Amino acid sequence: MKKTINRATLQKMLDEGAPLTVLDVRPAEERAEWAIPGSKHVDIYEALKAGDPDALASVDVPSDRPVVTVCGAGKTSLVAAEQLRARGVRAASLEGGMRAWSLAWNTAEVPVPDSTARVLQVRRTGKGCLSYLIAANGAAAVVDAALEPDVYLELAHEHGWTITDVLDTHVHADHFSRGRLLAEQTGATFHLPAQKRVAVEHRQIRDGDVMTIGGARLEAVHTPGHTPESTSFLLDGQALFTGDTLFLTGVGRPDLEADAGADRERAHLLYGSLQRLLALPDETLVLPGHTSEPVSFDGAPIAETLADVRTSAELLNVSEDDFVETVLARIPPAPPNHERIVLLNEVGRMPDGDPIELEAGANRCAIGNAVGERKKGGL
Q1: pLDDT score for 371
Q2: Share of the chain above pLDDT 70, in %
Q3: Active site residue: 56, 68, 71, 316, which one?
Q4: Is the whole-model pTM more than 0.85?
């Protein structure tokens, strides 16, 4: 076994269910931020950095399968892999560490009853971003592209789909939209909710606009609050792509890029938007733009019916005044580099150099229940 393994290879092994152990050697506080699904944690980072040759002496790992060691940037995990190899364990270090893992992804098909469309959920498991391929009669649309265009192109090719439309639900603050790049590479139309911020060429979407994707009907529902332009999309009256407005156990934060005092006004707007969504039929599927936990390689879609979300998200069951006060009291720390990310998304540019440097860290778009937002899924 080589001394290192790259992100794509590890992703493929996990996707195929290959027998291996992923050993995370980061400090506990770093692992709490984000981790590889199914990984085992041992907090020996400082011992490894200090050169302790016995840092892994008491760590029990299976001897009948390879071990992949992981740290933040792929350096300290090299030391861990060397110590394991000295014990006769087949061990390799993840190149680039969790920074590289930020672009790891997997997929799940979402069954949508009474729709002519197929929906593929594309999960950026290294960061919790959820994007979607919606296809019918050979045509496809991509919602909230958060991965490199080649990912969507390869998936579309595998299924015999042609990408004709690319949409963003809002101007993102925690990751770079790859929507413009994908539209340029495919010749697809790039759609954005109506606003005056984004300079790149696009077609503006307004409340009530209907787009046809190979016969499937995609209706825009303006849901301001997380951002002023935030828009959800209703597929054939059955599935709702909510972006960062509504999650499975929480709601979007109203404060990013808001002027002083505007977060309260936007919280009121968000309440109204959520009430509009809650008026949809209970069986409507909610398909959010993020999840708060690493996404397992299990093929289970992260989706729930609106009725289940209403039960799980306590903020959907309070008065408007209580909603506003609770949301403002629970606002989490802002995503790292969010101002720079928003600016580049507005001008339609990717950063110079490696975008992962600016996108590093978990997403922080949701305000969940008092005990924290839980990941739910598995239709």
Answers
A1: 43
A2: 97
A3: 71
A4: yes
